[in-house]
UniProtKB/TrEMBL annotation:
<dbReference type="InterPro" id="IPR000506">
    <property type="entry name" value="KARI_C"/>
</dbReference>
<dbReference type="GO" id="GO:0000287">
    <property type="term" value="F:magnesium ion binding"/>
</dbReference>
<dbReference type="InterPro" id="IPR036291">
    <property type="entry name" value="NAD(P)-bd_dom_sf"/>
</dbReference>
<feature type="active site">
    <location>
        <position position="107"/>
    </location>
</feature>
<comment type="pathway">
    <text>Amino-acid biosynthesis; L-isoleucine biosynthesis; L-isoleucine from 2-oxobutanoate: step 2/4.</text>
</comment>
<dbReference type="GO" id="GO:0009099">
    <property type="term" value="P:L-valine biosynthetic process"/>
</dbReference>
<dbReference type="InterPro" id="IPR013116">
    <property type="entry name" value="KARI_N"/>
</dbReference>
<feature type="binding site">
    <location>
        <begin position="25"/>
        <end position="28"/>
    </location>
    <ligand>
        <name>NADP(+)</name>
    </ligand>
</feature>
<dbReference type="GO" id="GO:0009097">
    <property type="term" value="P:isoleucine biosynthetic process"/>
</dbReference>
<dbReference type="InterPro" id="IPR008927">
    <property type="entry name" value="6-PGluconate_DH-like_C_sf"/>
</dbReference>
<feature type="domain" description="KARI C-terminal knotted">
    <location>
        <begin position="182"/>
        <end position="327"/>
    </location>
</feature>
<protein>
    <recommendedName>
        <fullName>Ketol-acid reductoisomerase (NADP(+))</fullName>
        <ecNumber>1.1.1.86</ecNumber>
    </recommendedName>
</protein>
<keyword id="KW-0028">Amino-acid biosynthesis</keyword>
<keyword id="KW-0479">Metal-binding</keyword>
<comment type="pathway">
    <text>Amino-acid biosynthesis; L-valine biosynthesis; L-valine from pyruvate: step 2/4.</text>
</comment>
<dbReference type="GO" id="GO:0050661">
    <property type="term" value="F:NADP binding"/>
</dbReference>
<comment type="similarity">
    <text>Belongs to the ketol-acid reductoisomerase family.</text>
</comment>
Length: 329
């Protein structure tokens, strides 16, 4: 059974008198830094001058260049994009690390695939929220928390787990639950989840449903409302009580269609594709492809992103959301 931790298992006092540098102030950086500050911890941000730098100042957080933040910190949480971490680590993080400091990540990509190799005398840990950064912040403000994973890769100081748990408490994760894993397991399951189900699988399923309805002469607006807008409402039910709760709430007609047609849509071919996607993650092929893609300025990433941004689903979706007051910013 996986080890689980809650508020009572974590002591914020472990971080008393310690300075935390959150490197990067994007989705996770902002959410985590603000929660740590509101939990009474000493937190600074390390980032380059630009949009994020200005945002941190506006939020009232002290900001430094990455190297300067690392030098003065006891705990360094690396929340840069995965593809930028190795270069910034060599240039600005590695020089400021010394014995007993804690190097932290929210995703294991660079450690697991050997892009960052820390010195043996620092702690290397992970505190990885299982949710987007803006929810890490929003749920904390509501008195709740996003669950997180912790992992200990190197325990140089002997208290690496206590440091990781205190940090997890600081961002509000122990209010929900914190599960212990390894860098390998987090990296492989996270990549698989986002590729096969959460982002990749879900986007492909929505596009396939939308395109099928439109190709058969139905109005794009009807197709969007059915396969995209309503999806959130159904996923909320699954989030709250699993497939069982969702099936209790939808009509019996929907439930019968779900049970008999769903497995025809996601059949043996999808299982085989998922297995292939997982194996590419496990043997490093996906990591190599993504690292090389970045070295040539991301041509595939840019072309595919543009094509999907121009897809009718996105055009119609934007028009429909503009008609509903709840989507007005
Ligand atoms: N997004 C999420 O919700 C989740 C992310 N993670 C992990 O968290 C980590 C951070 O991801 P995410 O929050 O999405 O990242 P974002 O892209 O949202 O933010 C990255 C931040 O790093 C800054 N940055 C980028 N390059 C540099 C550089 N060379 N020097 C200094 N600062 C730089 C950016 O600033 P600027 O404005 O200057 O570009 C920005 O503040 C990743 O490891 C990711 O896998 C884990 C769980 C969920
Ligand atoms: C699902 C995408 C994610 O893994 C996340 C928000 O957890 C990410 O890398 O952003
Ligand atoms: Mg994830
Ligand atoms: Mg991820």
């Amino acid at each position: 059974m996986v080890e689980k931790y809650y508020d009572a298992d974590a002591d914020l006092g472990v971080l008393a008198g310690k300075r935390i540098a959150v490197i990067g102030y994007g989705s996770q950086g902002r959410g985590q830094a603000l929660n740590l500050r509101d939990s009474g911890l000493d937190v600074i941000v390390g980032v380059r001058p630009g949009k994020s730098w200005e945002k941190a100042i506006k939020d009232g957080i002290e900001v430094f260049q990455v190297a300067d933040a690392v030098k003065q910190a006891d705990v360094v949480q690396v929340l840069l994009p995965d593809e930028d971490q190795a270069r910034t680590y060599l240039e600005a993080i590695r020089p400021g690390l010394s014995a007993g400091k804690t190097l932290m990540f929210s995703h294991g990509f660079n450690i697991h695939y050997g892009q960052i190799v820390p010195p043996p005398d620092v702690n290397v840990v992970m505190v990885a929220p299982k949710g987007p950064g803006h929810l890490v912040r929003r749920l904390y403000e509501e008195g709740a928390g996003v669950p997180a994973l912790i992992a200990i890769e190197q325990d140089a100081s002997g208290d690496a787990r206590a440091v990781a748990l205190a940090y997890a408490k600081g961002i509000g994760a122990t209010r929900a639950a914190v599960f212990e894993t390894s860098f390998r397991e987090e990296t492989e399951t996270d990549l698989f989840g986002e590729q096969a189900v959460l982002c990749g699988g879900c986007s492909a399923l929505i596009k396939a449903g939308f395109e099928t309805l439109v190709a058969n002469g139905y109005a794009p607006e009807m197709a969007y409302l059915e396969v995209c807008h309503e999806l959130k409402l159904i996923v909320d039910l699954i989030y709250e009580g699993g497939l069982t709760t969702m099936r209790e709430v939808v009509s019996n007609t929907a439930r019968y269609g779900d049970l008999t047609r769903g497995p025809r849509v996601i059949g043996p071919e999808t299982y085989a594709a998922m297995q292939e996607v997982l194996e590419e993650i496990q043997d490093g092929r996906f990591a190599k492809e993504w690292i090389l893609e970045n070295q040539v300025n991301r041509p595939v990433f840019s072309a595919l992103t543009r094509a999907d941004e121009e897809h009718d689903l996105e055009v119609v979706g934007a028009e429909i959301r503009a008609l509903m007051p709840q989507f007005k910013k």
